[in-house]
Design brief:
With 164 residues, this protein is of the alpha+beta class. It has 5 helices and 5 strands. The protein has a 5-stranded mixed β-sheet with strand order 2-1-5-3-4, covered by helices on one side. Helix 2 crosses helix 5 and helix 3 packs across helix 5.
């Protein structure tokens, strides 16, 4: 039997403690040890972006991140970006407005990458959005709608910051 290690994470603002095998990925902890299934397992090779989450505010592909690497850190998943009262994040609203999904499987990872893309300051042009969202694959081909949604969300968030 493999040895387990204690793991403390703050997931979407809530402290959680787990016992994990050192080979366990952050994705597997999120999907199998919590009630949160929004983070998707796509390729399991870090190539599709379906498993994108934020660790300490930076986007990571959770299928390639060992859970113990995230120990003691803050993790934000798709379930954690809306307001506590259920108000959607600007990126979620834009994805709905621009129909930036079809089957929806890649949508959580796309949204998490879009939030990071905007926060990182990489939403200045459609080309820049495409470049910084290129780690996320949409098999349905909703890319033009995704770019439009990211562009609109960036504008919305920028004007909200200016008004604050």
């Amino acid at each position: 039997m493999a040895r387990t290690y204690p793991l403390q994470l703050t997931i979407n603002g809530k402290n959680r403690v787990f016992k994990v095998d050192p080979r366990t990925t952050l994705l597997d902890v999120l999907r199998e040890s919590t009630e949160m299934r929004g983070t998707k397992k796509g390729c399991d090779f870090g190539q599709c972006g379906a498993c994108t989450v934020h660790v300490e505010g930076a986007r990571v592909v959770s299928c390639l991140t060992l859970a113990l690497q995230a120990g003691g850190k803050s993790v934000t998943t798709i379930e954690g970006i809306a307001q506590p009262d259920g108000t959607l994040h600007a990126v979620q609203k834009a994805f709905l407005q621009f129909d930036a999904f079809q089957c929806g499987y890649c949508t959580p990872g796309q949204i998490m990458s879009a939030v990071a893309c905007i926060k990182e300051g990489h939403a200045g042009s459609d080309d820049e959005i495409r470049e910084y969202m290129s780690g996320n694959i949409c098999r349905c081909g909703a890319y033009p709608h995704i770019v439009s949604a990211v562009r609109e969300a960036a504008k919305s968030l920028s004007s909200a910051e200016e008004q604050a």
